[in-house]
Amino acid sequence: MSSFFKLRFSSDTDTAADISIMTFNVRSFNRNMNIKNTAVFEETLDLITTERPDVICFQEFYYKKLKDFKNYKYNYLEYINNPGKVKLGFYSKYPIINKGLINFPESPNNAAFVDIVVKNDTVRIYNLHLESLRVIPDKDIIAQEESMKLYKRLANSFKKQQQQAEIIKKHKEDSPYKVIICGDFNGTQYSNVYKTIRGDMQDTFQEKGSGYGRTYNFKYYPVRIDFILLDDSFEVLSHKNYNVKLSDHFPVMTSFNF
User: Fold this and answer.
1) Torsion angle in degrees (nearest 10) through CA of 141, 85, 187, 20
2) Which segments of 122-146 does DSSP mark as H helices, in order?
3) Cα angle: 89, vertex 219, 203; to 5 degrees
4) Bridge partner residues of 110 (DSSP)
5) What average pLDDT score do residues 153-174 get?
6) pLDDT of 52-95, one tens digit each?
7) Which pLDDT does position 134 carry in this prediction?
8) 203 neighbors 4 (Cβ within 8 angstroms)
9) How far is it, in rounded angstroms, from Cα 122 to Cα 126?
10) pLDDT value, residue 250
11) Where are the alpha helices (DSSP H) in the chain?
């Protein structure tokens, strides 16, 4: 149960922390009007201005908004001339000295990394968006689907996810720096994909989170599929889940010391 529910009474960001990081699948800032709210992007900007994370990892970013986050001196977004490919955006208040894209084979999904310098130390941050399960998040709709078709689709997605997890694991092991992993895993903390990527890293929700830690709007169920994982030598000071309807996901932020 400790990976599913935490009973704590404070999750505020520690302002004395060395660094704070937010991860958020923004679903292209509601570009396709999946939410009946024309001010989603402006409200997202307000949230970030208020919470002031030092680093942000965006999934499903809309590249035309790249220059709109003016409080961040450094950014990285690899432009991919493919409308079906997931865009991953980084913003940082600290210098980015190295960066790269990790393309997953035969998939619209991918990962990226940046190396940033904080207080004369360098850390590597991964931003992931793993293979989608392609399931509408409503148990009644799922119940109506033909079982064998659903099984085959899920089996194919799980197979791709595991392949992607192994790619990230190998890349992480070759990192010259301590590692932070953020993003949308499209799987829960009980999945083999999560366990493969996490290894002996800290899950910030388990360290300092509270409640169910819901990160995805699955009807009736508090699903946690967006994570921030830290090197086990870091000291986690806070973890916060935000209940804001700006996407089908909810943002997550943590603060910690080296």
Assistant:
1) -130
2) 139-144
3) 50
4) 103, 129
5) 93
6) 999 999 999 998 999 999 999 999 998 777 777 889 999 999 99
7) 65
8) no
9) 13
10) 97
11) 27-30, 40-51, 139-144, 147-173, 192-198, 204-208
Whether the Cβ atoms of residue 99 and residue 114 lie closer than 8 Å to each other: yes
Order of strands across the sheet that contains 88-92: 74-77, 88-92, 55-59, 19-25, 252-257, 235-241
Domains identified in the chain and CATH numbers? 19-257 (3.60.10.10)
In order, the DSSP letters of 10-72 are -----TTSSEEEEEEE-HHHHTT-SSS-TTHHHHHHHHHHHH--SEEEEES--GGGGGG-TT-
Q: Which two tokens stand for residue 43?
A: 């409200």
DSSP 8-state class, residue 125: E
Q: Say how many C-beta atoms besides its own lie within 10 A of residue 132's C-beta.
A: 15
Alpha carbons within 13 angstroms on the beta-carbon side of residue 106 total 6
Question: What are 84's two structure tokens?
Answer: 């079906």
> What is the phi/psi pair of residue 191, to 5°?
-80, 155
The residue ranking higher by pLDDT, 142 or 189, is 189
Mean pLDDT of 98-126: 95
Q: Residues near 217 by Cβ (< 8 Å), separated by ≥ 6?
A: 137, 245, 248, 249, 250
Number of neighbours of residue 167 by Cβ within 10 angstroms: 16
Q: Look up residue 247 and give its two tokens.
A: 């996407």
The residues pairing with 181 across neighbouring beta strands, listed in sequence order, are 126, 229
